[in-house]
Amino acid sequence: MDMTTAEATSETAQERKAPGRPRNAQADEAILDAVLDLLAEGSSAAAVSIEAVAARAGVGKATIYRRWANKDALIMDAIRGMKGPLPEPVGVSVRDDLIMLIKANRSGRAKRYSKVTACLLPEFLRDDNLFDMWQAVMEPRRDVTRRVLRRGVETGELRADLDIELAVLMMTAPSMMHGMLRWAPKVPEEGFAESLVDAFLRGAAAS
Question: Its domain of life (predicted)?
């Protein structure tokens, strides 16, 4: 529930008087980390409140409301930060770039927040608004993989009739199942990205 104008004015005045209170990037980081911490501890997106985030981050609610229009926008910004910057393919070979992309999505940062993703996935399926925002976060990352695959078709490394969308799915789903949901636990982490890409290329590489 949105706070009243009086509450916002009061908190804003208190923040101006409080020395040493984090501002700008520091406040943003504390707020986004608080959201992720609450989700990792098992809170649903619906259960995460602005009050709880403010208390965990050590800021007033006014600080949050000045930066984000609503709670959904705050959660999506936290998820965007959780994913980190978009990876940049080097462009030497399709194989090397695909391996790099898979490893980027299985980094220590990704493992740290796997509980957050697992917590939110059911909510994305139930809430169309959250799902659309999640898609907006993930689509640029998928597009990086698409560009690598299309380049591979153009250079002759990959089959000319390659289904790009199906190939993106083939590159992402096994990694998610293995890394986050821990399917196929006997498949070692070491060399996983290389093994997955090589299996894909056995069917996708140009003859």
Answer: Bacteria
